[in-house]
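fold-stage: in
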Amino acid sequence: MGQLTTHVLDTANGCPAAAIRVELFRPGQPEPVGSALTNDDGRCEHPLLEGADFTPGEYELVFHAGEYFEARGHVDAEPRFLDRVVIRFGIST
């Protein structure tokens, strides 16, 4: 079986995006099926999806970029220019 991981880079500052909250959703479902906080290298310590949970279908990764930049002192006007970055993708067999 496969697994789903992610690696987040802060290209604006030329470094890994440490301590960014990442959530994994199935579209239309309100609760995440997985979540993580990236480590100092911008990676999740454990897969967001693996084993029997790694099933075909559509998913959304939500990166909480606004929180990340605010914690680093980059405060935008409201609404934030960049708040949540959503990537919708599919897993097939």
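fold-stage: in (second)
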Amino acid sequence: MTNKYPTLGFIGIGLMGKPMALRLLDAGFDVNIWNRSKDKLSPVVNAGAIAFTTIAELINHSEIIILCLANTSVVESIAKNDIINAGCVDKLIIDLSSIAPDTTKQLALELKHQCNINWVDAPVSGGTIGAEQGTLAIMAGGSKSDIEIAKQVLKPLYKQLTHMGDVGSGQVSKICNQMIVSCNVMVIAEMMALAQSAGVDSGKIPQALAGGFADSKPLQIVGPEMATETFEPIKWKVQTLLKDLNMAVDLSQQYNNSIPMSGLAAQLMQLHGNQGFLEQDPSTLIKLFSKDRC
């Protein structure tokens, strides 16, 4: 470790946070960590991270704070109840979470006013595989100077990081990403179920469509899982897609845009979640369209 690397404080060691924190450690960063569920910290601590019992302590021992949290309410709670009250100034927060754009703008303004803390919203796409391999796509919002810092700090994590505009624009871009991903996974599920009903070996579909206009990363990932009903290990969750689709609906209402495809996908995703699949992998969506839903 050399002095050119800032000390990072990483809050949120979950499905995405764990592999990202491990990659940052492997790249030579000193990484402090905090997570609500302490049992998830061991693999990252064993790799060299320092675990803190409070967010305030972590913030005061870190130069740049990285958030990777479940939803808008969690980010808002930590920002307002922990970061603001930590007594720190002149820090940079890089939020990798996918949360509401308006809340992002509000929190950024509040932290800047009260603590002179800058904010970059940098939601990611690519799933746990992308996090493990360092091939994520990152859509970032913030000032040019803050984005340049984020590019250097997050370099071990991404294949592409695009500056989308001011704070909040990264979150809008991620919502757009999730509209495409969610609708894609939904139609893959109904297509695979139809192929099975028609007597086609659905396991061959991803291979047959590879390289054609119907091909996509989701098809190549969830297609084989749907065909074989291999729903574990869980790499991402139905409730995550549902959260982002609901934000897309909210955003469309705010700007008076019609999004019928994503709106229907949100309803179907909610139906699937209500059947006990919120915490399950989206590959389980095939059960929504299969004759045997047990």
